[in-house]
Design goal:
two-stranded antiparallel sheet; about 45% helix; about 120 residues; Arc Repressor Mutant, subunit A; globular
Length: about 120
């Protein structure tokens, strides 16, 4: 399975069990991505952190991050620039839907390019 971000990814050289697990997880991942995107869109410019997404749906904290990574790779969400404290006490990125991102300005870097 190498069609990330459209399906859960597997690193080159991984054992065959990793590919089987990715195939099994694909439907659940798509569902969770849709749920996370709807939630983040619904929060507008306030956005959401990975922990906030996980807490909203009762997911393990570690399980929201791959879904957000995929949404970012698909340019559906972008780093909104804000930071909020997560459950670990560390600051987390606040993700916003790409349609809420400021207008593109090339010299401002990767954040702005991700919204294209």
């Amino acid at each position: 399975m190498t069609d990330y971000p459209d399906s859960p990814g597997v690193r080159a050289g991984s054992p065959d069990t990793a590919f089987e697990a990715a195939d099994d997880a694909a439907d659940a991942a798509k569902s969770r991505e849709a749920m996370a995107l709807k939630f983040i869109r619904g929060r507008g410019l306030y956005g959401a952190t990975a922990d906030e997404v996980a807490d909203t749906f009762g997911w393990e904290r570690y399980s929201s991050r791959p879904r957000l990574s995929t949404l970012r790779a698909q340019s559906k969400i972008v780093d909104g620039g804000g930071r909020r404290e997560g459950a670990s006490g560390r600051r987390q990125a606040v993700w916003i839907a790409a349609e809420y991102a400021p207008p593109l300005e090339r010299e401002q870097g990767e954040f702005w390019e991700a919204a294209e």
